[in-house]
Amino acid sequence: MSSKAALFTVRHSESCPQCGAALVMRSGKHGAFLGCADYPQCDYIRPLKPQADGHVVKVLEGQPCPLCQADLVLRQGRFGMFIGCSQYPVCEHTEAIDRPDATAIACPQCHEGRLVARRSRYGKTFHACDRYPECQFAVNFTPVAGECAWCHFPLLIEKKTAQGLRRFCASKACGKPVTTGHEERE
Would you give the end-to-end CA distance of the chain in angstroms? Predict the structure, then answer.
């Protein structure tokens, strides 16, 4: 064992399930882990979850969990903030904080859903059908109600161009610019 690893060794309250020796918390190249104090005679290790993975930020007193009636808590997870039960992992109830912004525009593909604003894992905003995964229609620009004069597709999109804010057909097969007579300039 290197001296650098020994500097980060901390005793843990559990004992090793393989040999009964104490477990120690160590830091490795993949993060913190629990390992047997009798290493190398015993090679037991267990990864530790990162601290930011679901840790409690605030208890939401007076807001009971709909499944078990325990208090709900605000948690910070790897994909952002969410609401969850304080009795996790016994009760696995979670709620999203960010509801997608719905538009009044009907989905041009399935004609049943509505387009909603969503965020990609990289933080970019796009608009998609709220019936996902049944309908997988999505556009990367702001949707606008209207019809393409060329192909009669029932949706337009707004893009910022060098000439200002312009509208285009949302159909990937068409994509032609649509003139409305009163183009906005920036």
Answer: 63
Dist. CA 121–CA 172, nearest whole Å: 23
Q: In what order do the strands lie in the sheet with 94-96?
A: 55-64, 71-77, 80-85, 94-96
Render pLDDT for 73-116 as a digit per residue (tens, 0 to 9).
Answer: 888 776 667 888 888 878 888 887 766 667 788 999 999 999 99
Q: Which residue has the higher pLDDT, 81 or 137?
A: 137
Q: Do the beta carbons of residue 73 and residue 55 sit within 8 Å?
A: no
Q: How far apart are CA 106 and CA 41, in angstroms?
A: 65
Q: Check residue 50 and give its pLDDT.
A: 52
Residue holding tokens 């790897």?
78
Output helix, strand, coil percentages for the chain, rounded to the nearest 5. Answer: 5, 45, 50
Distances (CA, A) of 53 to 13, 30, 31, 59: 21, 15, 13, 16
Tell me the percentage of the chain whose pLDDT exceeds 70: 78
Q: Distance (Å, rounded) from C-alpha 2 to C-alpha 60? A: 45
Cβ-contact 84, 95 below 8 angstroms = yes
Q: How far apart are CA 171 and CA 146, in angstroms?
A: 12
φ/ψ of residue 170, rounded to 5: -80, -10
Contacts of 30 (CB under 8 A, 6+ apart): 47
